[in-house]
C-alpha cells in the first residue's frame, strides 16, 4: 500500500524533499490520488535502542541535543525557528572522538560535534546539508561537523547557506549502503527523524532500497 503524506509538523522534511504541497486540501488530494514512486528507508540500530527505520535523517551529538531541547510549545509559537533558538544554546556542545565505518572499509577516527546521516539532503529553508543525497539511490549520505570556535561556525553556516559546503574542512562527507558511527567516550544524545531516542555511543545504519511506496504530485 502506498503512503500518503499530509504534512502537519514543524519541519515537514520528508514532504519538502518529495516536493509535496504543504497546505490542505492540496496535500490530501496528492495523498489520495497522486502518482506512486518507491523510496529508500534506512534501518538503524544501536546500543540501548530497538531497531527502527527512518525516512529523513538520524544523528548523534549536537543535532540530537538541539532536537531534545526544542519544546513543543516553542515550536507551536515560532515554528522551525525554535530549532535555531535551541541551537544557539548548544553551540558549546563538545567535540567527541568517533569511529566511522562505511560499507566494508576500515573505520576512520575523527572528532565531531555532530554526525548526521541522511536519506535526503535538504533542510527547512532550502539549506542543502547533504548535497549529494537522493531518496531512491540505494545510498545514504552523512556529514561529520567539527567546528572548533565561533569563527568556524560562521564559515560552516556561510558554506551551507551558499551551497558551497564541500569546500569547508569542518564538514566531511561520506556515502555508502552501510554506515556505523561509534563514540569513544560517554553516551551522547541521539535522534531519529527528529525524535529523541535514548543517549548512547553508537548508530548502525543500512539502506533498504526502494522498499516504501509513497504518493507524490
CATH top level is: Mainly Beta
| Percentage of residues in strands | 35-45%
Q: H/E element string?
A: HHEEEHHHEEEEHEEEEE
Question: N-to-C terminal Cα separation, in Å?
Answer: 17 Å
Whole-number tally of structural domains: 1
Which class of secondary structure composition applies to the elements? alpha+beta
Extended strand count: 12
- Please give the largest β-sheet: 6 strands, antiparallel
Could you please say which CATH topology applies here? Tumour Suppressor Smad4
- Output mean pLDDT: 85
Count up the helices: 6
Strand order of the largest sheet: 2-1-12-9-4-5
- The amount of helix comes to 10-25%
Q: Specify Rg, calculated over alpha carbons.
A: 17 Å
Sum up the overall morphology in one term.
Answer: globular
- The CATH architecture classification is Sandwich
Give start-end ranges of low-pLDDT stretches. none
Description:
The protein is an alpha+beta fold and 217 residues long. The protein has one domain: Tumour Suppressor Smad4, CATH 2.60.200.40. The chain has a six-stranded antiparallel β-sheet with strand order 2-1-12-9-4-5. Strands 8-7-6-3-10-11 form a six-stranded antiparallel β-sheet. The protein is globular, with a radius of gyration of 17 Å. The two termini are 17 Å apart. 33% of the residues are buried.
Overview in brief:
The chain has 217 residues and is of the alpha+beta class. It has helices at 13-17, 26-33, 62-69, 72-78, 81-89, 150-161, and strands spanning 35-46, 49-54, 57-61, 96-102, 108-112, 114-118, 140-145, 171-176, 178-183, 188-192, 195-200, 202-216.
Amino acid at each position: 500500500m502506498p503512503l500518503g503524506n499530509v504534512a502537519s509538523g514543524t519541519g515537514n522534511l520528508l514532504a519538502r524533499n518529495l516536493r509535496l504541497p504543504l497546505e490542505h486540501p492540496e496535500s490530501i488530494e496528492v495523498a489520495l490520488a497522486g502518482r506512486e514512486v518507491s523510496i529508500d528507508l534506512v534501518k538503524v540500530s544501536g546500543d540501548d535502542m530497538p531497531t527502527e527505520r527512518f525516512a529523513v535523517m538520524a544523528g548523534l551529538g549536537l543535532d540530537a541535543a538541539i532536537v531534545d531541547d526544542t519544546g513543543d510549545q516553542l515550536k507551536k509559537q515560532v515554528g522551525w525557528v525554535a530549532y535555531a533558538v535551541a541551537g544557539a544554546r548548544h553551540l558549546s556542545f563538545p567535540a567527541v572522538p568517533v569511529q566511522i565505518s562505511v560499507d566494508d572499509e576500515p573505520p576512520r577516527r575523527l572528532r565531531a560535534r555532530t554526525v548526521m546521516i541522511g536519506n535526503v539532503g535538504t533542510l527547512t529553508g532550502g539549506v542543502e546539508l547533504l548535497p549529494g543525497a537522493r531518496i531512491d539511490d540505494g545510498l545514504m549520505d552523512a556529514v561529520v561537523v567539527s567546528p572548533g570556535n565561533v569563527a568556524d561556525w560562521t564559515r560552516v553556516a556561510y558554506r551551507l547557506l551558499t551551497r558551497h559546503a564541500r569546500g569547508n574542512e569542518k564538514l566531511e562527507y561520506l556515502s555508502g549502503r552501510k554506515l556505523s558511527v561509534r563514540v569513544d567516550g560517554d553516551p551522547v544524545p541521539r535522534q531519529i527523524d527528529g525524535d529523541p531516542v535514548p543517549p548512547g555511543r553508537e548508530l548502525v545504519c543500512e539502506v533498504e532500497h526502494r522498499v516504501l511506496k509513497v504518493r507524490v504530485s
